[in-house]
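Reopening this ticket.

The earlier resolution said the output was attached, but the attachment link was broken on my side. Pasting everything inline this time so it's all in one place.
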Amino acid sequence: MALSPRRERALVGLFVLVAAGLLVATLFSLSGLFGRNKPIYRAYFNNAGGLGPGSEVRYAGGPPVGRVVSVHPDPRNLSLMEVEFRVDPVIPVKTDSKARISNISPLGDNFLEIVPGTAVAPRAAPGAVLPAMNYTSFGDLTAEVSDLAPQASVLLRNLNARVVELQVTVRRVNELLGSGNRQNLAASLSEVRAMLAENRAPLHSTLNHLDAGSAKLAPLLADFQMTANKANAALSHIDATVQENRPNLRQAVIQMKSALNSVTALTAQLNSLVNANSDNLDAIIDNMRDATDNLRAFTETIKTRPSALIRFPSPPKHEPGVVSRDQR
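Inline output:
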């Protein structure tokens, strides 16, 4: 049955109104006007990674739980981008939760992901700043690869140089293992084999002597170990004795030091006394020498003329140190 023109226009108008309402609702949803009651959080990135108002916010890579409200440079630090986003109140955003820029696939759009925090951490207050994990874009990777290009060139040049050196080494090894050298090596091995076969008995005897010497060395080492143990024990006893008699030894050392000081003082006094009486000592020594000469002369006189003890006429005047003619 055909519709009347008026009814047809009414249906078309109704369809246009429904489509317009759906479009407006979609725009409001994308702009976040329907989520004014959701808490807002902030994060600061060195690269926003293409995020903008209306970008999705996901929790642990799950379905969308919020939207990005605004993306603009941080007025306090123009090298960072401030990202404000809203999240459903039921999402457990913790104080140790982190924000990062991620995507589902390499060709998909980036979204803001909230990394869950620990179970014991408290919930973050609305307006809190979540720690951000820096985003590395494809341009950053390209820049790093470009920075590595000079180093890669140097590495390739060094590798080529090593390959050339390896080729030279392989060529020298091939020359060393040529037919002539192989024959010389075979001849040398034959001579060594013949020498071993010829001297097998002396070598066997030498090895037997070495075995016998090794067998005798073990008791010697045991005796040395025993002697070392005894020496350690003796040193331990000496140490214990010294520790036990340390006060007496200290007292003896103090007394010896005092005695040495006394001897030093006495020696100094004797030196001063000798220096003060050096002239008198010289006179005493001279008198003793004269007395000795007179006693010797008197002894000679008694030996030659014993009667002089009984009678001696007019004895001459005696002068010390002078021998008279009669006494001669």
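Reporter confirms the inline version is readable. The mean pLDDT is 80. The first helix runs from residue 5 to 31.
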